[in-house]
Amino acid sequence: MKNRTRKFGLAGIGVLVLSGGIHVAPTSWGKDPDRIAAGSTVLPPALEEKSPSSGGIRPPAVAGLFYPDKKESLAATVSNLFKAGPVVPLENLRALVCPHAGYSYSGPTAAAGYKQVIDRDFRRVIILAASHYAIFEGASLPDVSAYETPLGLVKLSGQAKTLSQKPPFVRRPTCRMQRPEWWRQSPAAAVAESADESPHTWEHSEEVHLPFLQTALRSFEIIPILFGRVDPRKVAEGIAELSDNKTLVVASSDLSHYHSYDAAQQLDRTCVRAIVALDIPAMEQQEACGKLPILALMHLARQKGWQTKLLDCRNSGDTAGDKSRVVGYTSVAFFDSNPVKPAPGSSVSDKPGQVYDAAERKFLMELARKTLTMAVSERVMPSVPKEKTPAKLTETRGCFVTLTKKGQLRGCIGHIFPEEPLYQAIMDNARNAALYDSRFSPVQTSELNDIEIEISVLTTPQPLSFKTPAELLARLRPHTDGVVLKIGNRGATYLPQVWKQLPDKERFLNSLAEKAGCAGEAWKAPSGVEALTYQVEAFHEERKSD
After folding, report:
1. What is the Cβ-side half-sphere exposure of residue 408, based on CA atoms within 13 angstroms?
2. For the whole model, what pTM was predicted?
3. Per-residue DSSP letters for 226-273?
4. Displacement of CA 546 from its chain's centroid (Å)
C-alpha cells in the first residue's frame, strides 16, 4: 500500500498527515513508523460534527496498537525501557518534551525523559497534546473522571473543570472529527456506537504518556489539554498558576515526519536547538506535530525563568524502522533555574540547561582570548576556518563580549539580534570591546594580563506586551531577562547580569532610558515605548591569581 504525505493546517500549524490508509493488526503495536508510530490520519473536507456528552472513564484507545494491551507485558516493556541509559542528576525538574509514537519506535526516547521523573513528588501532571483527529476552537479538556490504561486508572485533577471555565480552555467543544482508520481495532471501539465521542476519544498523543507516568510516580492526577486552534501563549498564561513544584508539565510531540534519515537528522537538530534555546521565533518555523504544545511550554518556561537540558534525540531509523522515511523524536527537560545560582567566577563547566557543552565553551573562550591578544598587540584578527569550528558554533546567534579589569568594566560590545555565525561574532565583539567601545580608551598591551573575558550568548529578543508602566514593571524578571528598551527612535539594552548592580526595576529602567539618551523616566510615556526581553547563557574565564 502506497502512502503519501501532505501538509495540513490542523490547529493552526503545518502537520504532516498520512493520506494513505492505515492498517495495523491488533497485536502489532508500533510495527510501522510511517503509520501507527506517527498515529496520523487524513481529515477529509467533510467531517462529522460532534458535541460529546459527559462521560465517566475514558477507555484506552491505543492499547495493543501503540503499546501492549496486557498489564504484565506493558509493565515489563516500560521497565525494560527505563533500564536503558542513565538517570541524569537534575534538580528542580518542572517539565518535559516527550514523543508519542508507538513504544517500539519512540519508547527509548520517551523513557529517557520519564526516568528522570521516577520517585519524584509530583502530584499533578499537565499533558499538553496536539489533536490528530479533530478540528475545534480552543484548548479542550476532557469531560471524564479518569483515564484508563492496562496499568489501571489515572484520575483527572479537580482543577481541570475549573480551568475549562476560563478562555481559551473549553470542555465538550463542538468539533469536526474523523475517526482513525484503526478505530475498529481499538479497545475504545464501543464508544463509537454511542454519542460520547470527543476530541479525546481516539487521541494517542495524550494516552501514550500515562503508562510511563504510572510506572514512575506513586500517586498523581492529570490535566490533559488537547490543542485545537489556539494561541499557545494564552495556554501558557492559563496554566502558569498551576505550575508549582508539585506539578509536572509534559509537551507531547514527535518531530519531523517521513523524510530520509539524513534529512530528518538535520531538521530535528535545528528544531531541538530552538527548543533548548527557548527561541520561540525559530521554533515557530520548525516541523513538529506537537508544535503548539511545545510553544506553550516554551512560553511558560520563559515566564518562569526555567532552563533546559537535552536528554535524547533520535528517529525511527535508529530504533525499529528503516531509514528511507523516518519520524523524529526528542526528550528535553525543563528546570527551575531560580533556586540554583551559579557561583561567581565559576569556570567553564557543564550545567543543567546550557546549550553549549564544556568543549564548545572552551573553544569560544580561547577564541575570544586569542582575538583580544592579537587585536590589541598586532591589530589583526585570527584566521579560523569554518570547517574546523564545531557545527553548533557556526549557527547565527546574537552575543556580547564583556571585558573587565580588576572587577571594573573595561569594554562591552555585542549583537542583540543574530547577525553572523557565533564564532565570528565572538571575534568581532572581542576586538570591538577592546578597541572601539566609545566609553573607554582602547585596551593596551600592558593591560592584557589583567583583562577578564565574559561571553554572553543571547536568545532572540521577544516583544514584551504591556499597556501601562506598572504592567511593564510587573512583567520584568530580574536576574533572568535582558531588556531592550526602545523610546521613539532611541534604544539601548542591558544584559541580565546588570540586575546585580540595579536590582530595583524602576532604577533599572531609569538607567536604561538614560543609556538610550533619554530622560530617566521616559519609559513611563503613554506611547512610543517598546520593550523586548531575552535570556543569555553566560560564561567566563577563571580569575587569574595575583
Report:
1. 6
2. 0.60
3. EESB--HHHHHHHHGGG-STTEEEEEE----EEE-HHHHHHHHHHHHH
4. 43
Q: How far is CA 129 from the centre of its chain?
A: 14
The string of pLDDT tens digits covering residues 505-528 is: 999 999 999 999 999 999 999 999
- Of 48-62, 79-93, 219-233, the range with the lowest mean pLDDT is 48-62
Burial 381-400 (b: 16+ CB within 10 A, else e): eeebeeeebeebbebebbbb
Given a contact cutoff of 8 angstroms between Cβ atoms, the answer to whether 339 and 92 are in contact is yes
Residues 6+ apart with CB under 8 A from 278: 298, 301, 302, 308, 459, 535
Q: 506-529: b or e for each residue (b if 16 or more CB lie within 10 Å)?
A: eebbbbbbeebebeeebbbeeeeb
* Percent of the chain's residues with pLDDT above 90: 63
What are the DSSP calls for 382-428, one per residue? ----GGGS-GGGGSB-EEEEEEEETTEEEEEEEESS--SBHHHHHHH
Angle, CA 127 vertex, CA 84 and CA 260 arms, to 5°: 55
DSSP for 333-380, please give it: EEEE-TT-PPPTT--S---TT-SS-HHHHHHHHHHHHHHHHHHHHHS-
For residue 10, give the DSSP letter: G
The mean pLDDT of 167-171, rounded to a whole number, is: 94
Residue 147 has pLDDT above 60, yes or no: yes
Q: Is the distance from CB of 437 to CB of 402 less than 8 angstroms?
A: no
- Residue 170's DSSP bridge partners are 140
| pLDDT for res 322 | 85
Q: How far is the C-alpha of 211 from the C-alpha of 482, rounded, in Å?
A: 40
CA distance 127 to 123: 13
Q: From 214, 187, 12, select the one nearest 122 (Cα to Cα).
A: 214
Residues paired with residue 363 on neighbouring β-strands, in sequence order: none
Q: Could you tell me the CA-to-CA distances from 181 to 4, 23, 177, 192, 252 in Å, in that order?
A: 15, 7, 12, 13, 22
Mean pLDDT of the chain: 84
C-alpha cell, 344: 561567581
Q: State yes or no: pLDDT of 265 exceeds 90.
A: yes
